[in-house]
Amino acid sequence: MFNSQEIISTIEMVKNEHLDVRAVTLGISLFDCISHDLDVFKNNIRSKIIKNASNLVSMCDAVGEKYGISVVNKRISISPVALVGAPFSASQMVEIALTLNDIAREVNIDFLGGFSALVEKGIANGDRALIEALPEALARTQRICASVNVASTRSGINMDAVLDISRAIKKAAALSAADDGLACAKLCVFANIPQDMPFMAGAYLGVGEADAVINVGVSGPGVVKKAIERGLENSPGLGLGEIAEIIKNTACKVTRVGELIGREVAKNLNIRFGVVDLSLAPTPTVGDSIGEIFQTLGLTSIGVPGSTAALAMLNDAVKKGGAFASSHVGGLSGAFIPVSEDLNIAEAAAGGYLTIEKLEAMTCVCSVGLDMVPVPGDISEETLAGIIVDEMAIGMINNKTTATRIIPVPGKKAGDKVSFGGLLGEAAIMNVPHATNRDTFLTRGGRIPAPIHSLKN
After folding, report:
1. β-bridge pairing 272-278 and 212-219
2. Contact at 8 Å (CB) between 431 and 413?
3. Helix, strand, coil shares of the chain as percentages rounded to 5?
4. Do residue 360 and residue 400 come from a single domain?
5. How many domains does the chain have?
6. Residue 427 belongs to a domain with what CATH number?
């Protein structure tokens, strides 16, 4: 329960420190919509989604207004389309994506996630059709997000899938060249993907989830930054352990706010409440940045020596605070370090403080991976595959979720600026070392075996 001091400090967070509920995501199972007839399947999913989601946006707005806390994004996640749409071809998968985009527009949500495949151990017919459909599906829709899980600690890394996805990313970039490859911003490649994540572009509803469930994502990098600043103003000599305690306590309060909003939305919609995902997801707004937290901690910029340790401390403290506040913490729950979506991180990359190699090292201790990274448009499929598989290896070996959201920007080279607009932000295109035709490791295919510590039974 809340005491009076917590209520006062939470009000301050809402008024002055960018505290909001970043996303309420309604997960909807589509397994009872399956049909071999495409028209029947499309009609079934339309009926199921509209039945469950028609009041989602208005209810989020009403609950947000009641508590004075904005719900920024209202979203839907669905069962992996590669599974529920397994009978269909690639061209039919594109039709399904267009139908889902129309439904998303009809219920007025921001994004619909779940145009997804789970291929960490092998590629079935539905998976292959979906991966083949990805470039056109993402280029022709505005609200559809996709994810493909190509690796897990239990299964290893499916290198055939990594290569296929690399080709799909290049095609998606080419098809959306007029928008600087924007279609690729709606595609995440995962290791150990969570089944209950409310954040896009990776959200989908796992096969072990309920028929319908509300998951909520709360983000508060500005709140954490202000809390650290207040602590240092009062006690300039604070040690790192004491700063970690401040972060933990702040994360606890933020998690309680998220669960309060999520449970009320779920109750009013008569839908099961799922999890709170306490991920520090930044925006391009000054004061709402993960990168600024590093400077508050005493580093010149994110990316300088000490950054990985600072991120590890931040991520751990956020998880501890969230776990204390709620028994239903899920999703990713930690710190995101997207390049273009965080103004401070984008500036660090443009200024040379943050290289792609240092960014990869930092993903070993954060909650996601190489996120919203713009790269030169002429990057080869082999180089893309190498970047992706390196990130998947980090997730597989460390038994954690990692992901990539890489955007080849057609016609542009390292150092050029690119702007994706809105919450996707802008950044300088990062330099990447190119694979050569001597790097045959990347094109051998097959499956990299699971690590020995996957044998836990």
Report:
1. parallel
2. no
3. 50, 20, 35
4. yes
5. 2
6. 3.20.70.20
How far apart (Å, rounded) are the C-alpha atoms in residues 69 and 22?
10
Which residue has 């009926």 as its token pair? 47
Q: What type of residue is 457?
A: N
Tokens at 341, concatenated? 């979506």
- Segment holding 229, helix H or strand E: helix 221-234
- Measured CA to CA, the distance from residue 268 to residue 64 in angstroms comes to 13
Helix (H/G/I), strand (E/B), else coil: 218: strand
How far apart CA 70 and CA 67 sit, in angstroms, is 8
Residue 235: C-alpha distances to residues 195, 230, 232, 239, 242 (Å): 42, 9, 5, 10, 10
Beta strands 111-118 and 144-152, pairing class: parallel
Backbone CA torsion sign across 435, 441, 445, 451: negative
- Judge if pTM exceeds 0.85: yes
pLDDT tens for residues 110-144?
A: 999 999 999 999 999 999 999 999 999 999 999 99
Give the integer Cα–Cα distance in Å for 88 and 35: 10
Chain segment 316-358, per-residue pLDDT in tens = 999 998 888 888 888 888 788 889 888 899 999 999 999 999 9
CA distance 337 to 311: 9
Indicate if 182 and 254 belong to the same structural domain. no
